[in-house]
Amino acid sequence: MTEIEIKKFxxxxxxxxxxxxxxxxxxxxxxxxxxxxxxxxxKNVLEIGTAxxxxxxxxxxxxxxxxxxxxxxxxxxxxxNQARKNIFQVWLSDYTELVNANAxxxxxxxxxxxFDFIFIDWMKRRSMDFLDLSRPKxxxxxxxxxxxxxxxxDKMLSLYEYIEKKVIEYNILPLDxxxxxxxxxxxxxxxxxx
Length: 194
Ligand SMILES: C[S@@+](CC[C@H](N)C(=O)[O-])C[C@H]1O[C@@H](n2cnc3c(N)ncnc32)[C@H](O)[C@@H]1O
Fold this sequence. Notes:
The chain is of the alpha/beta class. 40% of the residues lie in helices and 20% in strands. The chain has a single domain, classed as Vaccinia Virus protein VP39 (Rossmann fold), CATH 3.40.50.150.
């Protein structure tokens, strides 16, 4: 399948998501994530919250160009199966590993210092737990992007408290008119912290 055909498929999948209330990322965020993977040469990407695979396809497209791969975790079997079907349809199965599991149980099974980039797009109230679990899995100078941090800030207060307490540096990027993402780069200081 050509990239133009995949883009057409993604447009239709996005419209399907809007019609069926699937909370897919915005097209602006999708473009931003792809650009980040391109400029950072990220190869090992982790996504939490696959849903029907809209964001995963975007991530996989960028990973393919770096000869990399995206691992995406989803705990709803129904969404996981839809994503598998959609990803197969655009011939990106070789660049994705879909995991049907609860991310809270699954993340600790990854090796430390492995991922170049982690994208968090799941239950907003648990963002803090996820960040805490995934921090050790990120390589030095790897980065985390957390979605919806403006629109759902009130559901993410524990996340904001956590990064303040741990003195983690971050940027908020208002990509959409009503929302944006948080970016955290894993710095290597004297101690092994963000
Ligand atoms: C906002 S949607 C993801 C949208 C997707 N990233 C996209 O843009 O196409 C969040 C997804 O996270 C999944 N989820 C929620 N809690 C989870 C958990 N503990 N482990 C794995 N997946 C989870 C939900 O089932 C839901 O499909």
